[in-house]
Specification:
138 residues; 37% strand; two-stranded antiparallel ribbon; globular; single chain; mainly beta; seven-stranded antiparallel sheet
Length: 138
C-alpha cells in the first residue's frame, strides 16, 4: 500500500507508478499506468457524503456530452462511482478524447480520480484504473 499526500493510500502494484510525476505544487498525484503510459490524476476531494452524494457529485461534472457507462460499487466501506464523457470537442485538442472520472467516499473522506484519454484507449487500461481504485483507502 502506498501512502500518498492528503491521507490517501492506494496499492499501485506493478502496473502503476508515480515516479517522476510528483509535483508538490499540484493538488493530488499523477499516477502512470506502466504498460500504456496513460496518466490518472488522483486527489483528495473537498466535500464528502453517502453513495447518493458520490453519484450526484460525479454526474455534476461539466464535461460534454452527458455521462455514459455509469459504474458503481462498494469496496469495504468505500463507495466508488465512475463514468465517461466524450468524445470531447476541439477545445480539448485536435485528437478526439474522452474523460473518465471517478468519485469515492467512505462517508467521512472523499477522493476524485480522472483519466483524460484518446478514444482508442483499450478497455484494459480502464479496467486497470478500476482495479487500483478498488484499493483506495483514507
Amino acid at each position: 500500500m502506498r501512502q500518498l499526500r492528503d491521507g490517501l493510500s492506494v496499492d499501485l502494484g506493478d502496473e502503476w507508478t508515480d515516479e517522476d510525476r510528483v509535483d508538490p505544487s499540484i493538488h493530488g498525484y499523477f499516477l502512470v499506468h506502466r504498460p500504456s503510459g496513460s496518466v490518472v490524476q488522483l486527489r483528495k476531494w473537498h466535500r464528502t457524503g453517502d453513495p447518493d452524494w458520490v453519484r450526484a457529485e460525479l454526474l455534476s461534472q461539466n464535461w460534454p456530452p452527458p455521462a455514459r457507462d455509469l459504474v458503481e460499487r462498494r469496496v469495504g466501506n468505500v463507495f466508488i462511482a465512475g463514468a465517461t464523457w466524450g468524445p470531447l470537442g476541439d477545445a480539448f485538442g485536435p485528437t478526439p478524447r474522452n474523460m473518465r472520472e471517478w468519485f469515492a467516499s467512505d462517508g467521512v473522506h472523499a477522493a476524485n480520480a480522472s483519466l483524460f484519454h484518446v478514444i482508442e484507449t483499450p478497455s484494459s487500461v480502464i479496467d486497470a484504473c478500476e482495479r487500483f481504485l478498488d484499493t483506495l483507502r483514507f
